[in-house]
């Protein structure tokens, strides 16, 4: 039986992943809890998309895989935003 993530699950995982990614990328002082959640959820979408491009089934990985996907995607998102805005992170 596979458990899919609900909206609340995505918010919780996204918020946690966004917060940890902002710690990794040194952007935590600039972000609040809402932006951490947005970065984590959008990072999850970005990370999931990147994984599917490489042929990885991102949807069937479970909670831990989803968290790691969100975390990696959030770090990638913050890195890209830093490049665009000219701010250096990490």
TrEMBL record:
<feature type="transmembrane region" description="Helical">
    <location>
        <begin position="34"/>
        <end position="56"/>
    </location>
</feature>
<feature type="transmembrane region" description="Helical">
    <location>
        <begin position="62"/>
        <end position="84"/>
    </location>
</feature>
<dbReference type="GO" id="GO:0005886">
    <property type="term" value="C:plasma membrane"/>
</dbReference>
<protein>
    <submittedName>
        <fullName>GlsB/YeaQ/YmgE family stress response membrane protein</fullName>
    </submittedName>
</protein>
<comment type="similarity">
    <text>Belongs to the UPF0410 family.</text>
</comment>
<dbReference type="Pfam" id="PF04226">
    <property type="entry name" value="Transgly_assoc"/>
</dbReference>
<keyword id="KW-1003">Cell membrane</keyword>
<feature type="transmembrane region" description="Helical">
    <location>
        <begin position="6"/>
        <end position="22"/>
    </location>
</feature>
<keyword id="KW-1133">Transmembrane helix</keyword>
<keyword id="KW-0472">Membrane</keyword>
<dbReference type="InterPro" id="IPR007341">
    <property type="entry name" value="Transgly_assoc"/>
</dbReference>
<keyword id="KW-0812">Transmembrane</keyword>
């Amino acid at each position: 039986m596979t458990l899919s993530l609900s909206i609340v699950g995505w918010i919780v995982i996204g918020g946690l992943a966004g917060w940890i990614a902002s710690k990794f990328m040194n952007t935590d002082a600039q972000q609040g809890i809402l932006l951490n959640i947005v970065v984590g959820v959008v990072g999850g979408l970005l990370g999931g998309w990147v994984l599917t491009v490489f042929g990885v089934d991102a949807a069937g990985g479970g909670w831990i895989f989803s968290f790691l996907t969100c975390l990696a995607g959030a770090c990638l998102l913050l890195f890209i935003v830093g490049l665009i805005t000219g701010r250096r992170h990490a």
